[in-house]
Design goal:
alpha/beta, 20% strand, globular, six-stranded parallel beta sheet, 15 helices, four-stranded antiparallel beta sheet
């Protein structure tokens, strides 16, 4: 089987010849090849990034730029981004209700942009953001998607994506955990209306996107069960995910959800929503569940994609610790073949290249069916 065929078999519910290997090498590539980290994403194929995937034999599946542009349905909304002379990345959104602004600062150590100033500071800012986000429309550009697919060949299994949910926007992007939780109690009606409006707009965007040539849609909410409690999930996210899954399944497509945090207590709820795959599934020692415990909580139907914690993949762990973590993940293939081997999120920037190359050999040795 080709790498692409292996991933497709797992999603289809059949058993491949071995566990598929997928990696997000985008951050590793930017850091170690001294490529400017543009928050707007790749605008075209990065041949060297594709070659890295070919060199290690890992499927290219995310972080290939956007296959669509987000516009606003009327000229009353404007969104601007720029980087100033001090290296601060600015976002400014203007609407008839007012203007809001965000500032992010690049850290060379973590190779990421920390939020210096949140876009939403108060309830008035939330009204401005709601006005803007509820007026988004989508302009497909799947020629970009096709270009990456052609460049990667049999290593391409590209996910498309949908924006954060309403709650995900607030927690992860525009307001932060503390302010969001406080606002839920201080302004319950306003928060509920915001989340409803954003989720309804997301579903309209999905309808504009759904017939494009992709097989898996990923929702990037960065879930962590220590933050998004069962009560919050059930109140704001559960029915929304069920509707996304229903629309995708009707078209023969699949839904992946990016977790990237504590899985305990979350996997069963996502399975109940009809989610097909948990992306960035990160087991112990970084989070609490062992691979076997994660499989038991998820059940046998839902795909677990991940398995290699950043704390083990990176330079602070030994090769033997890295190999042991990979082997423990691959062992659960015998419980259910709904399994993909990947980094717990992105391959960390300090991961030694020889470990990345080692993964294909480890799957060959310990991941066959």
């Amino acid at each position: 089987m080709t790498p692409q065929e292996r991933v497709r078999a797992v999603y289809a519910g059949t058993k491949p010849d071995r566990v598929p290997l997928l990696l997000d090498l985008s951050h590793w590539y930017k850091k170690n090849r001294h490529v400017f980290f543009d928050l707007r994403g790749f605008t075209q194929v990065e041949p060297e990034l594709v070659q890295l995937h070919k060199k290690c034999g890992a499927v290219l599946y995310i972080e290939t730029g956007s296959p669509f542009d987000i516009l606003f349905e009327d000229e009353s909304v404007r969104s601007e981004t720029w980087t100033d002379a001090a290296g601060v990345f600015h976002t400014r959104i203007s609407t008839p209700l007012g203007t809001i602004a965000e500032e992010r600062v690049f850290s060379a150590d973590s190779y990421s942009y920390h939020i210096k100033k949140w876009l939403v500071q108060n309830i008035e800012d939330l009204h401005v953001l709601e006005y803007a986000l509820s007026r988004r429309v989508l302009q497909p550009h799947f020629e970009r998607y096709q270009a990456w697919s052609e460049a990667a060949g049999e290593l391409a299994f590209l996910y498309s994506f949908l924006s954060y949910s309403g709650l995900g926007f607030l927690i992860s992007r525009y307001m932060g955990v503390e302010k969001t939780i406080l606002a839920i109690y201080d302004y319950p009606l306003e928060i509920e209306r915001f989340i409803k409006q954003v989720n309804e707009c997301n579903l309209r965007l999905l309808d504009q996107l759904i017939d494009q040539p992709f097989e898996v849609l990923i929702v990037g909410d960065n879930h962590d069960s220590s933050v998004q409690s069962p009560a919050l999930f059930n109140r704001f996210t559960s029915e929304y995910y069920k509707e996304i899954a229903r629309r995708l399944h009707k078209r023969g497509k699949y839904l992946a959800v990016h977790v990237d945090g504590e899985m305990k207590g979350l996997l069963g709820r996502l399975d109940d929503c009809g989610v097909d795959c948990i992306d960035a599934a990160t087991p112990a020692p970084m989070f609490s569940l062992t691979p076997a415990q994660a499989r038991a909580e998820a059940g046998d139907r839902m795909i677990l994609s991940g398995g290699i914690p950043a704390t083990v993949f990176g330079a602070n762990a030994s090769d033997s610790e890295f190999i042991d973590a990979v082997k423990r993940w691959l062992e659960i293939r015998m419980i259910s073949p709904r399994l993909l081997l990947a980094a717990g999120d992105q391959v960390p920037t300090d991961a030694p290249w020889h470990r990345i190359e080692m993964l294909g050999e480890l799957v060959e040795q310990f991941g066959k069916y």
